[in-house]
């Protein structure tokens, strides 16, 4: 059997079916050799394991979100108890209870007490988040590029192991009543230094890009993003129901962190590698660490038409992330304090409902948006624009509405904004060479987290419970007005992405032109 008979290109479409779209990343010589055919088949076999990375993301994000919610409320309740213990004539209840704004103000006799407690909680929260975000953002550039060399799996294992150790230290703080101003910061640094969220998300998205064609990339990134929603829903159910039912006695809920981490690491060790062994041994070594920077700072590497789009895409992604992270930082405080004063179990219901609708947005609404018969080049920018309109509208609603059903309605509709993230990532992946996926996706995530450092500080500083203090009115809804403004600022940038590229028709490498095989 000759070469043409063994592997003809007649039934093979690079644009639609090949995991090697736009690049001969894995093919060094003739793509029809039996050795390369085996490599191609092996990659397709990996591709059929559809939810491998999605399941990893569920464990990773569940551990992160659950531990974050437990620690956030532990800080607030601990500071509240300390403040009340210093209040003259205050008698602590015989059993553990969850302290809310009414209880604190009633015990202290003034509104200023809740403002001070919230400010202290926000300040410690800022330090915790900034340490993790900055260290993760900086080191993810190295870890992401290393994943292009050593493979995705070792880096994912490292990230989840670091998060597990960080959670173990948080459990120790709660169990042994350690100084949370010291040990929670150490736990945060440990998470960031082992990769943190930037590396985890960037490398996970790179794994998806490794094995997914352009046609399915947006949808696949959407299913990966839905793991965030599922994890968030589960974390709300586990954390807030448990906290509320046992009167904010945190020791029991804290130990669940260790169980989640252990199961997650065990699963990740079984996850198949998305890069073939040959790619991991590719010559070039640590020279590839600079590849991500080259894409961003050397226009000739990808062409000017792609280069400025890469930057526009990254800026859009970063501002979207700034808005989402900023609101996430203060949302639970907003719901627990005035004007709403929801109980922790009701916050858990709200969080679970909105998280489920977030999943539905990514696995139901996103495919419907993709199916709209508009030119492919405009599909993802249209999806992002749709998300921006939703985000602006619902943030204005959250800023002005005050009844329970109105907040539920606005919160559930707001989850539709999540469709912007896979669309943006898909645009970015389509603008770079596959060999740069790890470096570029992780560097983009790194920039996201650096942006979220600013949002963490901004929103924690701006947010205050609704109260009148010394003639000054604190408006809790101002954070949503700020968010709506940021989303609105994205519209001109998104319109730039509708501009047609001169190089939309991708020219395949010579080694992939199957005319030579016929």
Name a few traits of the molecule.
single chain, about 525 residues, mainly alpha, Growth Hormone, Chain: A, two-stranded antiparallel sheet
Main beta sheet strand tally, sense and closure: 2 strands, antiparallel
**Treating each run of at least 4 consecutive H or I residues as one helix, how many helices?**
20
Return the CATH class: Mainly Alpha
Number of β-strand runs: 2
Strand content: under 5%
The figure for the number of domains is 1
String of helices and strands: HHHHHHHHHHHHHHHHHHEEHH
Order of strands in the sheet with most strands: 1-2
The assigned CATH architecture is: Up-down Bundle
CATH superfamily: MFS general substrate transporter like domains
Q: What value does the average pLDDT take?
A: 82
Structural class: mainly alpha
What is the name of the CATH topology?
Growth Hormone, Chain: A
Instruction: State the low-pLDDT regions, or none.
Output: 1-33, 504-518
End-to-end C-alpha gap:
14 Å
Helix content: over 70%
Cα shape: globular
What is the rounded Rg? 24 Å
Keywords: Membrane, Transmembrane, Transmembrane helix
Membrane topology: Multi-pass membrane protein
Protein name: Major facilitator superfamily (MFS) profile domain-containing protein
GO molecular function: transmembrane transporter activity
């Amino acid at each position: 059997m000759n070469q043409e008979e063994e592997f003809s290109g007649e039934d093979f479409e690079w644009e639609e079916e090949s995991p090697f779209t736009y690049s001969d990343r894995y093919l060094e010589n003739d793509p029809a050799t039996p050795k390369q055919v085996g490599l191609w088949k092996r990659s397709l076999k990996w591709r059929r394991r559809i939810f491998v990375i999605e399941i990893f993301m569920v464990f990773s994000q569940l551990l992160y979100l659950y531990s974050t919610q437990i620690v956030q409320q532990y800080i607030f309740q601990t500071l509240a108890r300390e403040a009340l213990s210093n209040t003259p004539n205050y008698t602590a209840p015989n059993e553990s209870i969850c302290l809310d704004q009414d209880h604190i103000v009633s015990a202290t006799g003034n509104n200023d007490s809740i403002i001070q407690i919230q400010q202290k909680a926000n300040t410690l929260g800022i330090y915790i988040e900034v340490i993790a975000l900055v260290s993760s953002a900086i080191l993810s550039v190295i870890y992401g590029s290393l994943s292009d060399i050593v493979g995705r799996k070792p880096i994912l294992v490292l990230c989840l192991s670091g998060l597990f150790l960080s959670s173990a230290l948080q459990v120790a703080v709660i169990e042994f009543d350690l100084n949370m101003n010291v040990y929670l910061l150490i736990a945060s640094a440990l998470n960031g230094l082992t990769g943190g969220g930037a590396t985890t998300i960037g490398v996970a998205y790179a794994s998806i890009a490794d094995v997914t064609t352009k046609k399915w990339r947006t949808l696949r990134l959407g299913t990966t993003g839905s793991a965030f929603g599922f994890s968030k829903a589960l974390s709300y159910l586990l954390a807030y129901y448990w906290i509320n039912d046992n009167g904010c006695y945190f020791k029991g809920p804290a130990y669940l962190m260790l169980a989640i981490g252990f199961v997650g690491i065990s699963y990740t060790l079984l996850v198949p590698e998305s890069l073939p062994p040959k790619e991991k041994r590719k010559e070039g070594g640590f020279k590839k660490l600079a590849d991500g920077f080259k894409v961003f700072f050397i226009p000739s590497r990808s062409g000017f038409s792609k280069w400025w789009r890469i930057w526009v895409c990254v800026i859009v992604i970063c501002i979207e992330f700034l808005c989402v992270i900023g609101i996430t930082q203060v949302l639970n405080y907003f719901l627990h304090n005035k004007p709403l004063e929801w109980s922790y179990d009701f916050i858990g219901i709200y969080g679970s409902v909105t998280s489920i609708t977030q999943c539905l947005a990514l696995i139901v609404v996103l495919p419907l948006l993709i199916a709209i018969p508009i030119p492919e080049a405009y599909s993802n920018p249209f999806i992002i624009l749709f998300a921006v309109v939703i985000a602006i509208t619902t943030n204005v609603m959250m800023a002005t509405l005050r009844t329970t059903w109105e907040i539920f309605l606005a919160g559930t509709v707001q989850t539709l904004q999540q469709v912007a993230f896979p669309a943006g990532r898909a645009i970015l992946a389509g603008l770079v060479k596959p060999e740069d996926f790890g470096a570029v996706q992780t560097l983009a995530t790194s920039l996201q987290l650096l942006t979220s450092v600013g949002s963490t500080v901004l929103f924690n500083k701006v947010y205050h419970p609704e109260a009148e203090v010394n003639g000054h009115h604190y408006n809790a809804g101002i954070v949503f007005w700020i968010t709506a403004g940021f989303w609105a600022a994205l519209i001109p940038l998104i319109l730039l992405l509708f501009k047609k590229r001169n190089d939309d028709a991708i020219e395949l490498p010579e080694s992939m032109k199957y005319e030579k095989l016929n």
